[in-house]
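Lecture 7 notes: from sequence to structure.

We start with a single chain of 345 residues. Read the sequence below before looking at the structure.
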Amino acid sequence: MALRIDYSHSLRPFDAHVELTVAAGETLALVGPSGAGKTTTLRVVAGLLRPDRGMVAVDGETWLDTSAGLERPAEQRRVGYLFQEYALFPHLDVAANVGFGAPRGASIDELLERFRIGALARARVRELSGGERQRVALARALARRPATLLLDEPLSALDAHTKTTVRGELHELLRELGLPTIVVTHDFEDAAALADRVGVIVGGRIVQQGPAAGLVAEPRDAFVASLTGASLLPGVARAAPDGLTEVVLDGGGSAWSTDAATGRVGVAIHAWEVALARETPDDSSLNHFRGAITSVVPLGNRARVRVGDLVAEISSASLDRLALQEGDVVVASFKATAARLVPLA
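Now the structure, written as tokens:
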């Protein structure tokens, strides 16, 4: 039951063109900045937007083919759509919200129990927590017995504590459903946790897609590198001995990488690749940058420490052992094999 999408549409700042196939049981996350065309893709699939040119088909059933003059209206498309902020009806109770899009005569009791909201059947939306509202919205989306599921920023309305729990629940649910699913989010961490494949969309185009780990390991450009959480050091690359590339950094000094490149590049470094020490270590790392700590952010048993343009993620034990605090001068080090080079305009 694959979902196939191929459309072009003129938007105010750019012309969008997206071509995607989402397999049965696969979750694809579309990630990108606001206004990049993420929600436009959902609207085209759902029949809420007619593109200038396009085709949408699910399991061989065509919902849209502009070249043939075919356009199935939204109410006739088997789409489960979870809107941002959930778009629940405040004047209806939970049971009525879930049953709103269900086929005539369908029972919603199973869905209420499946999402652990059976006891809330007569509750109003204003009485629900953020996590409960999301479960009601998901149950309503599935009440339509959809052939595909579309989720628009499904976690953005949740506080940080609730988000962690609900994200795990949603991941398990998507695997269980086995539907071709598209998740739209601006948060790469959410995309990595929920999706089998991540598509980065910028200016209405998919600039890179693949497993989240692949995007982290081999970003194609500076935007993808930054999106995945890497620090970016701009400079000019040139070939160096021993199969290395030297990058003369705009901010002074040089960085070394095993990636081959010439010209303007960004050196992309992820926080877990950066080690901190009071003095320059005698180890295999070729890159050492001395600077003052500008921020220390504890995160459970870890801490994120910013040194100049670099961010290091170290254990709380290392933070305590080194007695690091803002203003301290330290050496941030990383290996040449950890430095990814991405082209800069």
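The chain has two domains: 3-78+146-217, 230-343. Keep this in mind for problem set 3.
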